[in-house]
Specification:
By secondary structure, the protein is an alpha+beta fold. Helices cover 27% and strands 33% of the residues. The strands form nine sheets. Strands 14-13-10-11-12-15-23-21-20 form a nine-stranded antiparallel sheet. It has an eight-stranded antiparallel beta barrel with strand order 25-26-27-28-29-30-31-32, surrounded by four helices. Helix 5 (107-114) crosses helix 6.
Length: 666
Amino acid sequence: MFTKILIANRGEIACRVIKTARRMGIKTVAVYSDADRDALHVEMADEAVHIGAAPAAQSYLLIDKIIDACKQTGAQAVHPGYGFLSEREAFAQALKDNGIVFIGPNPGAIAAMGDKIESKKAAAAAKVSTVPGFLGIIESPEHAVTIADEIGYPVMIKASAGGGGKGMRIAHSSDEVAEGFARAKSEAASSFGDDRVFVEKFIVDPRHIEIQVLGDKHGNVIYLGERECSIQRRNQKVLEEAPSPLLDEATRRKMGEQAVALAKAVNYDSAGTVEFVAGQDKSFYFLEMNTRLQVEHPVTEMVTGIDLVEQMIRVAYGEKLGISQADVKLDGWAVESRVYAEDPTRNFLPSTGRLVTYRPPSEGPDGEATVRNDTGVFEGGEISIYYDPMIAKLVTHAPTREAAIKAQGRALDAFAIDGIRHNIPFVAAVMQHPRWIAGNLSTGFIAEEFPEGFSLPAPKGETALRMAAIAIACDHKLNQRKRNVSAQMEGWRKVAFDRQRIVQLGPERFEGEVIEQGEAVVIAFPGRSVSVVSDWIPGEPVWHGTLDGVKVAAQIRPILNGVALGHAGAYADAHVYTQREAELAALMPEKVAADTGKVLLCPMPGLVKSIAVTVGQEVKAGEPLAMVEAMKMENVLRAEKDATIAKILAKEGDSLAVDAVIMEFA
């Protein structure tokens, strides 16, 4: 077995590979850019080598730098993770030429299947059903429009070397094709060093289902079940699960056997994923093959008990698969939430900065469920503008889908992040969504269920009652602290607090009485009492306890006269008053938000790529004003209404903070 491997990646996946290598007794080498000098994967590895500046094109995408790091440290093999160089035939070949083992498929398999254009040609030659599209090189926007007109709208424009939603656009008209073509080529070039794109028919109301395959260098290939990845935003997966609630055993077998046949046709010899677009009637079409480890591989690992990273390492070393198809059994259900540094209330725009608080839920057993958190960050660390915005992948596994979803909801409630914006409120809300719970999914789920964008849901019903009980219990705990403050005046009686409490929870009002019963605090609401037990300490960002004996977690932050709470996908400020305080609070004036209607604010920290207007120019609603790049994504900022440009305060190349003024309108 290898004694030392290098991980040609960063962040969460680098840490993930290091964990398995460490368990196998293999030493690891990390590589890092200027931006990642203090990153978690650098700290975890046995050795680390600096390979360049922060932009990926000047560090993680430089093949020569990776090979030099291998030679410098004596690493015998390289695991590429996902993204960056993981699907580059030239990288696998360069390693081979230098006597270094690539922990992934052979260069021929990457060439045949890793390139999305070539993979579709190979699939078509093998008579695999594919989505209608144009598989040749598209030279210009006009050429793209002609092709799209022939295929019929809507169409998808996709980077040939792409992944993770980068270099991908959906177009419903010729104008959108022309603009999407330019954006896709630009993003593909900056993210993958390859600006080729292709066009294919976009299937309406589809599901995205993929098959995990695993092959060795002795001709053996098996499939490890499927993953449902239909919950997507901007063609980037947000939630994944295994197995799929759509498939029956017969369809699963058909998809698996087709995936294996395709892998065998190109002598595939590592972990890989064959992706399908599936109709609600269980029909399916080959979409593409990812010749690497997928971001969402943990859900497959949880339901099969197979460590895919370990299998990749063993196969690369030349070992035969120790698993046959008959050995693969799907046990229970796994759900994964991708935790991103982005603001869901601002159309999911990226967010960067320091993780002032990073407290993930405890890993391990949670009743009948198991919690796993794959991450590459730490409290106090920095989320950079240069790379993918992923913070962590939170996975729960349980005997049933319902139990896995409930466990995921509890784990999200217990996940505290401060200092940046993040999407935990969004994925927590999805966990409570009836359509998600029913398994009635499609890739249009987010657009259909959140057509006006996402705003923090207000608590209702039982959720609101639970949050009110937690708020009163926290207020009572704080009052107990005040009663026990040291150095109080001698002989002075301790303050006696009113037991009646009024909670203003968003628009809802609750009245309750605090009754102490041993370790419990009973909150007596009209017609209902809730027994609260918790060892929460003021200042902790997550409240853990039980309500009427049921385990509950809630995110909690102090505010004036109360706490801000997040629980079960609902969020609200809970103001806790005595009767007299409530009367006085009702007389307080409300703060009026500042008018920002005459300025264009930068919606996220990023780099100004271009300014599309000039001072004095009249613009119509919908016209582009500027483009800001953040985390490898180009974001076009458009006019919300007709206006005249009065001042332009930013220029191309400026690095802006969130809410920085880009321009003013007359």
